Amino acid sequence: MQFKLRAWNIEDLNNLVKYANNYKIARNLSDKFPYPYTEEDGRSFINFASGESVNHIFAIELEGKACGGIGLHPQFDIQCKNAELGYWLGEPFWGKGIMSEAIKQVVRYGFANIEVDRIFARSFGTNIASQKLLEKTGFVLEAKFQKTLYKYGKYEDELIYAVRRS
Prior knowledge:
Radius of gyration: 15 Å
Mean pLDDT: 97
Strand content: 25-35%
Oligomer: single chain
Distance between the termini: 29 Å
Order of helices and strands: EHHHEEEHEHEE
Number of helices: 5
Helix content: 25-40%
Number of strands: 7
Structural class: alpha+beta
Shape: globular
């Protein structure tokens, strides 16, 4: 499926809320991605993602509508040569190859435009689909921490994958 990555804008609000308001998505992300996902949450996110100081967070647009998001979050201090990759996609679009191509594009973008040597992503131990996606796109498992994440009253393993500038 053809998609494009672009900046978020307020016209994306309805689709953002429509696709982000999904327990299956939120259960595998940090608590910064709430469930239920409200219009207020969407406005807050769009204001953040479209701010002048943020330029590495993209809407995934399919057929003229935002259906997911992907971004790089540069780290600071002694981790300043690293960026964390975050991503999600509306459930109707799963399994169509969109996210694997989006990750490849964002990794290329990151190494070309951000002074980082490593891009990493965290996966919940139970999120096998995300782990396979990261491996498919060239990420390597660097670490596994047992029961370090706590979500919805349950401990989860944390897996850290990374790709390095070649």
